[in-house]
Amino acid sequence: MGFMTRFTLVVSLALASACSLVVDGALEGKEGGSTCTGADDGTPCALDGMDGAAICRSQVCTLSTCGDGLVDTAAGEECDDANETSADGCEPGTCEFSCASNDECEDASICNGTESCDTTSHTCVLGTDAPDDTACTQEDGSDGGCRAGVCRALGCGNGLPDDGEECDDGNEVSNDGCEPDCTVTCMNDVDCEAFDVSVCDGVDTCDTATNTCVPGETLDCDDGNECTEDTCDPVDGCFNDPLPFDMDMDGHAVESCGGDDCDDSDPEVYTGAEELCDGKDNNCDLAVDETAPVWYVDCDGDGFSPDTSVTREQCAEPPPSGGCGWTNTRPVGLDTTDCRDDNALVFPGQTMYQTTAIPGEPSATNFDYDCDGNERPNYPLSPTFIIACSGDRFCSGTTFWAEDFAACGLTRTLSYCRYSVVTGCSRTTREETMACR
Questions:
Q1: Among 144, 166, 320, 360, who pairs with 151 as Cys (CB 3.0-4.6 Å)?
Q2: What angle do CA 230, 231, 236 make, to 5 degrees?
C-alpha cells in the first residue's frame, strides 16, 4: 500500500462514525485485528480495508516490511534479520537468502579454490587455495601464478619467492633485507661492504636476523677545541679545521681563538673600534664611553658653529645655554664654519638663492648665504656663449642677466626662452630681482 493510500485511509477512518484508528501499523476498532489472537509472530493476517501484506506481531495484525525482523512468507520474504549487512545469509532490502546453491558463490578464480553455499546458514564458504605456482590468468589477461590464493605476476617483484629467488618483497627498496633483484641484502659482514658508503657511521655489519646491513658506531669528530670546525668526510673521516671565529662578521676574530674582538656578538665592539656613546666598551680597552664627542655652540640652530671658543665634551647634547643650542660639527674651514650664527638662513652648503641682503652684513658679502666668501647670482651675467632657444612647446636655452654689471637684490633684465603660439620657441626678457647666494 502506498503512503498516500495509507494516509487517506487513516484520515477517512478518523472521520468515520465508528472512530476506528490505525495505531502502530495495526487497525484498531475493527474485528479484523482479532485474527491474531493466540497466533505466533509472523503469522499472516489481513487488515480490513487495507491493501498489502500483514503479519501478526504481539497478537496484533500489523503491516509487513522487509527489515522488521519478522519473516513474511506471504510477501515472498525468505528471511529477515533486520540489519543492513550483506552476504551474512540474508540480504538487506530484498529479504532473500544470500545464496541457495553453489553456483551463486563461485567467483571463477582458480587460485582461491571452489566456493560453495552453506545451505544451513545460506552463506558462501571459501574454497581451498590452489597450490602456489598453479597457472592462472590475471585481470589484464596476462599469465600468472597462484600465490596465497591470489593470481600474481610471475618473476621477481611479485611479492613471493619463485624458484631460484632468495627472496621477493615486491618493492624496489635496497638494504631492507631483500634487494630489488630478489637476493637477500646480506648473509655476513662482507656482504655489507658494498653498502658502507660513509666511514662517518662506522663499519656496517650484517644483522642475520633481518638480513640487513646496520651502521656501526658513529665517529666522534669533536676535538674539544672551540676554535676548530669539526666535520666528517664520508671518505676521509674526521677533520678539525682551525677557524678564526668571527660570529658578528666585523672582520675581527674572537679573543679566545687568538683574535682581538672582546665581544664577538656585537659588530661595533673590537680592538681599535671608535668609542661610541652607547654604554659599551667599543674599543676593548676596558673603559666605557671614555671618548665623548665635543659640542660647539650653535645659536641660530642651523647645525653649524662660528668657532671653537665655546665647547662641551660629553655624550649627550648639552642643554641650551644663553638661548643657544649645540652642534657636534666641528667648525674647521669654510665648509663647516657658520659665517653668521645669528641667521639660520646663512650656513655652509646653503643651496637657496635669496633676493634680500643679510641684515648687518657688509655690502661685499651681504648676499653670501652659503658662507663661501662670494656672492654668486642664480644666472650668469651676459655670458659670451649663449645657447639659442629651441624645442616644441617646452623651450630650452641659456637664461642670463642681460647686463654686464648687476648688483644682487636689484631689479634687472632677465633674458630667457619662452614658447608662444605665434612665434614658437623664442627668446624674450622680463624685469626681475637678481637672487644670489
A1: 144
A2: 130
Q: What is the pTM of this model?
A: 0.39
Amino acid at 348: P
Q: In degrees rounded to 5, what are phi and psi of residue 44?
A: -60, 145
* Strand boundaries in 80-216, DSSP class E: 116-118, 123-125, 135-137, 143-147, 150-153, 205-207, 212-214
Does residue 111 have a pLDDT over 60?
Answer: yes
Cα–Cα distance for residue pair 310/306, rounded to 1 Å? 10
Distance between CA 115 and CA 104 in Å, rounded?
9
Strand 26-28 versus strand 228-233 pairing type: unpaired
431/437 Cα distance (integer angstroms): 20
Q: What is the pLDDT of residue 29?
A: 40
* Residues 50, 27: Cα–Cα separation, whole Å: 9
Q: Which phi and psi (to 5°) does residue 268 adopt?
A: -95, 5
Closest CA to 248 of 230, 229, 273, 223: 273
User: DSSP strand E in 167-272: where?
Assistant: 205-207, 212-214, 228-233, 237-242
Nearest CA among 268, 275, 272 for reference residue 315: 275
